[in-house]
């Protein structure tokens, strides 16, 4: 074996893992080619490496280890490196002392290293708990653990996705896990540590492998691109680092895909966005600025353009939420947001962080967080995303609770009153108090109406002349529940501007007065006294309508022609009386027959021609 094969990591840089046996000419994916083979090659896991180094140096090696973390952060790879460290053995040669004890200092390939890293060593048994979940599988491990290793120092059992073992399998493993033979080590890996029984966790030394930070990931990907002689710009690497979400395996898989997509050409960010279906960062920033200005039309056009380009609506909102988080971090501390961001993004982020209030950013984050789930669950993702953007744009200029309290303390009787913006664009007539506190972009502030002086008295936004106007207003506000309650449950006693007295109809909700008081204040801009009266009150609107309908039917039924139709067609009934007004019905008036509809089985008489036939 040549020197490079014996010492693949001797220069201390990033080198491929030991070569696996595979057919000649077979391509080796980057995730396997650059899989770490020693602890120094692990990236982003310095606390775990330090703890293990001290444990091995002090000869305080535990009997079982639990490795947990999200996918692709190196759980199985760490388990194989640990198995290699347990069984590291190097014979004396050329004045070099032999290594006959466990160690994490593995600068050369030991006797068992190649076989362990290729998962083919007889004493290092890897088992996938996803396909071996039963007590019988664990019984085989327990039975075989009693025998000494065939070649190596320790017999090592690596169980991947251990949380998928059955309850009986976990119970069968407990005794051996607590008091294993001295020549046995257990290594468990899982992505869902909460599903592992606490009785198992308590018997293991646990390590939580962290997501790899973006800066570390960028350096790692850049080093691999240099070794693979791949030309890729920084922004494209940044996109891969973001899309990987801290998973090294995902990042290398995306890099593999990007290299194939580029077909040997330099990899640019624009081509990578098209490959990944990501939104252009500049478009995301433009979308956010339009939303903060309240320009709904521009925001929806921006979303539609990105959707036509191939971006997923949920991903667009996710990118928008990430930018909101980025701006928030810039507002708190510019240093925390300098990593993993382009120059344009940093400049825009700093500008927006200076202009937008923290309450706006926090509210935007909450709306987007909820909206992303709505879009993912919606059968029409684009329409759902449109509605999320509309909601965000209309909420962008709302004042914070602190601002509202200040305005109320200053004497503004209706901080939420006044006309609202039209659907076509920004508001042109919000109240002065709200405009002063609205955290919009200063450069995009819409034209403001003349502000009232402090001595001006605020008049009610809506004046109601009678109870019918109140019912009509509820319909205009599309408050169907309140409109129905007004028609069905209110027996009116007294009505005037600012005062409403009524008795409740049978079965009405006792909370109706409080609900009406709140609705009236919201709709009219002034306080209303809404009270229950002991007087019986007038019939409800529904009762009045039913009485009029009954009166009409009685009048129509007395008409000679209708009475003849009912006599000649047994079983016929009057379905409805349709007329142009609600005037009292006179049975002797001939025009009353117009609009009367009489039905018997499939026969209907409702017009003059049928009257003559009758």
Task: Give the tags.
elongated, alpha/beta, Helicase, Ruva Protein, domain 3, 614 residues, Rossmann fold, three-stranded mixed beta sheet, Zinc Finger, Delta Prime, domain 3, single chain
Q: What would the average pLDDT be, to the nearest integer?
A: 78
Number of helices: 26
Number of domains: 6
Beta-sheet strand percentage?
Answer: 5-15%
Helix content: 40-55%
CATH H-level name of the largest domain... which superfamily? P-loop containing nucleotide triphosphate hydrolases
Please report the distance between the alpha carbons of the first and last residues.
Answer: 113 Å
Q: What fold name goes in the CATH topology slot of the largest domain? A: Rossmann fold
CATH class of the largest domain: Alpha Beta
Poorly predicted runs of 5 or more residues = 1-13, 413-459, 581-614
Please give the order of strands in the largest beta sheet: 2-3-4-1-5
Biggest beta sheet summary: 5 strands, parallel
